Amino acid sequence: MPVIDVKHDLDALTLTIVADFAAPVERVWQVYADPRQLEKVWGPPTYPATVVDHDLRPGGRVNYFMTGPEGDKHAGYWLVTAVDEPDGFAFEDGFADLDFTPNPDLPASRNVYTFTAHDGGTRATYLGVYPSAEQLQQVLDMGVVEGASLAINQIDDLLAS
């Protein structure tokens, strides 16, 4: 399992997930840079993603939805704020209506994904910062740790293929 550590800090308003992959940084970068690869790992296995728009550059936007086992759809978006290919990128991640209009009733987070060479592979650090402790607690209660861990743990199979 790639996920080696998960920490949330309600005082610092952060959720940090660390994962190790047996692939070079450039290969891990491609998982996020290619929308077809991203679809295979964004969302847990029972909620596969469909990436509708993918513009991974500063000022760009990624729109996606996940489809649940009952056919229910849940949309989200990234507003890309920084890109340092292949070492990482930063973005706002939020929930959206099915037309990709941001849903202000659900938390949005500022995220920094960093990929560094480590022990012959890549260490990925996924940092999310929330506007308030209540909003961080809300996504924790929604199962973000479990869902994100299941999603990230799918990356190994993709890297091996």
Walk me through what this model shows:
The chain is an alpha+beta fold and 161 residues long. It has a single domain, classed as 2-Layer Sandwich (Alpha-D-Glucose-1,6-Bisphosphate, Chain A, domain 4), CATH 3.30.530.20. Helices cover 24% and strands 42% of the residues. It has five helices and eight strands. An eight-stranded antiparallel β-sheet has the order 1-2-8-7-6-5-4-3. Strand 5 and strand 6 form a beta hairpin. The chain is globular and about 40 Å long. The model has no long low-confidence stretch (mean pLDDT 96).
Explain briefly what this protein structure is.
The chain is 24% helix and 42% strand.
CA distance, first residue to last residue: 16 Å
The largest sheet is: 8 strands, antiparallel
CATH class: Alpha Beta
- Taking all residues together, what is the mean pLDDT? 96
Describe the global form.
globular
Tally of strands: 8
